[in-house]
């Protein structure tokens, strides 16, 4: 992709608004917390302290919108306290420009490394640096700086307290994650009616698994319908696929296929009803004909063999879905433990240390954002514009570890600033509001930002820009002078961020082959774990299969995220064209799917072992690792051991489920053909 095309696509992406479910009560609670803090500090300490406290409450509410499964009050407290500490330390060094630049470099570098711990931590750390650049200009002494830090922390505490006193949709994030997983299963069932080999994105299931981890205290308070539904949803997917696939299920045409479509439609209806009940916390209502179709007596008469077993299993799983979604299940799965924060420290240090590798995108981001923020602050200080902190504040807010988000957010930030500042300035110059009215308008803008924050960065930044204008007007700033300066410095900050990524990039495109190789190796291990079970059917519910499946899902999601970022990069593909990447992705998805189908029909305890399965599993592990190295080194893929083992499997007298191994062999050949073009280039 050329630079012109990349800039055009990222600009369009930054200005795009998405249709998301709005949460007005959550936005109202955040705005109410802000109003309490601003009103209280305004009455007790005056407008300058009120402005400082407003930033603390404002940032604390924003932190609660980040995707995290931690309790929302904890996020608000952590955000408020960290901003208070940053403000106090920043003020102590603000009087000495070289010392403050050194502190700013270290602080921003640490905020950049925080992305190694996840987007939620990265966003909160970046926001703290940005707001700190404003709040350090408000105090006039060390004692005053301590007071400002205290009211900032108090703002976070107020937001946390409101969340505890006025909860909105208890367990809402966990409910949404589980409901999305059930809805994805329902959509998969409907798509299988039209395309029996359609693929399934495991992302919603992985997200639901992450959301299901709770602390022991949370486990005692968790709603009953959130206990076992995810485990049931995990078992539904392979049953749906094995029922619909013509290779292992019913034929493509005939009465069996018609009955299969009826079963899939009924399963989709039940799953949709369960998703709606879980999301809203209401009683599950199922159309009577859906359960009747799943348990129709003539189903067993029409279907035979593996499809019949799959239909019986599907009906049983739908009963489990109904029971767990209603909170009536008696067998509760042990909860996944979410360790407390102090137990996460060693793992967090390991992830940060891993991010310090020379070629790490996180390290490059930390270096890039640190250099840009310091340069922007120095440039804003030198230029005769005043309010020089707007440039570095813009840079740190728009910069992300990947190209597309950085450029999209830069465009969105500038567009949102123009609109927000323009509207707020027109209101100020027309109505000339006083301190209290300016504070009320700032709270109203904050409510608008909380409400539309998840619909797009441009829309949120319109409200954010207007919020800052009204807030600074309440603190005594000359808005007429602030507007042109802020717009120009915002443009400078955005351009610095974009230029920095162009000069010191961290492109995802050159790493695509590594991501593909990781997925190939993980898929190979998953398929090998499943096949190995055929050689030892006594090992029921082997944890190795589950562990390998989760690793394969992680590798697949990592590949898809990398590919989505690479599509918008102005970088040439190195031996992997877009068509080749799509074909390889399809082949690996089919490889994982063949293993899933074999897992759906694992032999029961006491079944006759298949001796050839052990050899095939071993060959698949070794050849997958060798093929992964070949993908990285752009060499042809070889499957000699797997071919020999497959031949032995098919010749085995008691070999079973040969259709699954046939699908596996076809997927390996498809993958080899997809990557041949890159090797020839």
UniProtKB/TrEMBL annotation:
Domain named Integral membrane bound transporter: which ranges?
377-499
Q: What InterPro entries is this protein classified in?
A: Memb_transporter_dom
Location comes to: Cell membrane
Give the source's domain of life in one word: Bacteria
Q: Name one GO cellular component term.
A: plasma membrane
Membrane-crossing ranges are 31-62, 149-168, 366-390, 410-428, 435-452, 487-507
Q: Any idea what this protein is called?
A: FUSC family protein
Question: What organism is the protein native to?
Answer: Streptomyces jumonjinensis
Highest classification ranks of the organism: Bacteria, Bacillati, Actinomycetota, Actinomycetes, Kitasatosporales
């Amino acid at each position: 992709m050329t630079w012109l095309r990349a800039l055009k696509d990222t600009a369009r992406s930054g200005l795009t608004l998405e249709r998301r479910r709005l949460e007005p009560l959550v936005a109202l609670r955040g705005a109410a917390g802000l109003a309490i803090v601003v009103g209280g500090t305004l009455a007790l300490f005056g407008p300058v302290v009120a402005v400082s406290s407003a930033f603390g409450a404002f940032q604390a509410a924003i932190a609660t919108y980040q995707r995290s499964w931690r309790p929302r009050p904890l996020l608000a407290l952590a955000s408020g306290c960290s901003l208070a500490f940053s403000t106090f330390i920043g003020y102590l060094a603000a009087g000495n420009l070289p010392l403050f630049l050194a502190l700013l470099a270290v602080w921003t570098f640490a905020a950049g490394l925080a992305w190694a711990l996840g987007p939620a931590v990265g966003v909160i750390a970046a926001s703290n640096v940005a707001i700190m650049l404003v709040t350090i200009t408000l105090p006039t002494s060390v004692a005053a700086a301590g007071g400002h830090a205290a009211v900032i922390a108090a703002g976070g505490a107020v937001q946390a307290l409101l969340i505890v006193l006025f909860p909105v949709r208890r367990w809402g994030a966990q409910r949404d994650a589980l409901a999305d997983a059930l809805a994805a299963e329902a959509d998969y069932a409907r798509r299988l009616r039209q395309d029996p080999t359609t693929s399934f994105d495991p992302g919603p299931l992985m997200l639901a698994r992450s959301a299901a981890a709770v602390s022991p205290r949370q486990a005692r308070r968790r709603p009953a319908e959130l206990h076992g539904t995810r485990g049931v949803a995990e078992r539904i997917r392979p049953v749906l696929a094995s029922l619909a696939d013509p290779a292992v299920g019913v034929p493509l045409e005939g009465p069996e296929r018609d009955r299969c479509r009826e079963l899939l439609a009924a399963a989709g209806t039940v799953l949709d009803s369960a998703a709606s009940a879980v999301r809203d916390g209401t009683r599950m209502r199922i159309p009577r004909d859906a359960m009747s179709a799943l348990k129709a007596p003539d189903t067993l008469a029409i279907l035979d063999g593996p499809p019949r077993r799959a239909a019986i299993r599907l009906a049983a799983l739908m009963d489990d879905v109904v029971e767990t979604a209603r909170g009536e299940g008696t067998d509760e799965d042990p909860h996944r433990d979410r360790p407390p924060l102090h137990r996460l420290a060693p793992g967090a240090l390991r992830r940060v240390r891993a991010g310090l590798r020379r070629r790490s995108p996180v390290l490059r981001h930390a270096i890039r954002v640190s250099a840009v923020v310091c340069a922007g602050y120095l440039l804003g200080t030198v230029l005769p514009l005043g309010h020089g902190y707007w440039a570095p504040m813009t840079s740190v807010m728009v910069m992300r570890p990947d190209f597309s988000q950085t450029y999209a957010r830069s465009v969105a930030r500038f567009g949102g600033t123009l609109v927000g500042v323009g509207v707020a300035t027109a209101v100020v110059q027309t109505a000339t509001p006083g301190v209290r009215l300016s504070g009320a308008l700032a709270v109203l803008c904050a409510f608008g930002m909380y409400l539309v924050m998840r619909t797009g960065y441009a829309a949120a930044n319109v409200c954010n820009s207007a919020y800052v204008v009204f807030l600074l007007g309440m603190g005594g700033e000359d808005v007429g002078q602030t507007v042109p300066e802020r717009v120009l410095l915002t443009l400078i900050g955005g351009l610095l961020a974009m230029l920095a990524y162009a000069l010191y990039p961290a492109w995802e495109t050159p790493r695509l082959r590594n991501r593909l190789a990781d997925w190939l190796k993980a898929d190979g291990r998953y398929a090998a774990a499943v096949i190995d079970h055929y050689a030892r059917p006594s090992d029921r519910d082997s944890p190795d299969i589950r562990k390998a499946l989760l690793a394969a899902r992680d590798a697949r999601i990592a590949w898809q995220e990398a590919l989505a970022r690479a599509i918008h990069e102005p970088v040439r593909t190195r031996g992997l064209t877009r068509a080749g990447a799509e074909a390889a992705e399809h082949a690996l998805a089919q490889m994982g799917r063949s293993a899933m189908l074999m897992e759906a029909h694992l032999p029961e305890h006491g079944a006759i072992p298949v001796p050839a399965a052990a050899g095939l599993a071993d060959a698949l592990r070794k050849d997958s690792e060798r093929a992964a190295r070949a993908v990285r080194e752009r060499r042809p893929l070889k499957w000699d051991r797997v071919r020999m083992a497959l031949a032995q499997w098919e010749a085995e007298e008691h070999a079973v489920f040969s259709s699954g191994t046939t699908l596996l062999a076809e997927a390996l050949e498809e993958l080899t053909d997809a990557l041949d073009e890159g090797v020839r280039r």
